[in-house]
């Protein structure tokens, strides 16, 4: 069974996604409307999270995954401990599509990601022509709570 997944995290980049899900197929790029991107988790090891915010958008990729790919992605992101799955509706080429997405569970503090993790996201943003300002804004909003202005090593 194939399923549509939306990624807004390190799996945005094709190379990274293929390492985790070798048979995944790109469906397209979308914007998750009325959500914002943040980083949550331990200092220097925070990961991407989205949360509702009216008027904000998060660039994302849609992927078609097999069950084996979905299982591998679940393990990679820490499902069901860190993230839960939620079906969200996005628009691709004027069509409304339901896509599963990982939504971080409550209890994780805003914090800075590692330089490596941030670099994976930045690479994905550049590969797909996403506005890097959204990523920088997420880092700034998350790091304010944490202290550092830059991702840590």
What do you see in this structure?
There is one protein chain. This protein is an alpha+beta fold. The protein contains four helices and five strands; from the N terminus they run βαββαββαα. The protein has helices spanning 14-20, 67-77, 115-128, 132-146; strands at residues 3-7, 25-40, 47-65, 83-92, 95-104. A five-stranded mixed sheet has the order 2-3-1-5-4. The model is unreliable at 147-153 (pLDDT under 50).
Write the layout of secondary structure elements.
Blueprint: E1 3-7, H1 14-20, E2 25-40, E3 47-65, H2 67-77, E4 83-92, E5 95-104, H3 115-128, H4 132-146
Parallel strand pairs: 1-5
Antiparallel strand pairs: 1-3, 2-3, 4-5
How many H/I helices? 4
The secondary-structure class comes to alpha+beta
Largest sheet: 5 strands, mixed
The low-confidence runs, each spanning 5 or more residues with pLDDT under 50, are 147-153
As an assembly, this protein is: single chain
Beta-strand content estimate: 35-45%
Question: How far apart are the first and last residues' alpha carbons, in Å?
Answer: 39 Å
Rounded to the nearest angstrom, the radius of gyration is 14 Å
Task: Write a concise keyword list for the protein shown above.
153 residues; alpha+beta
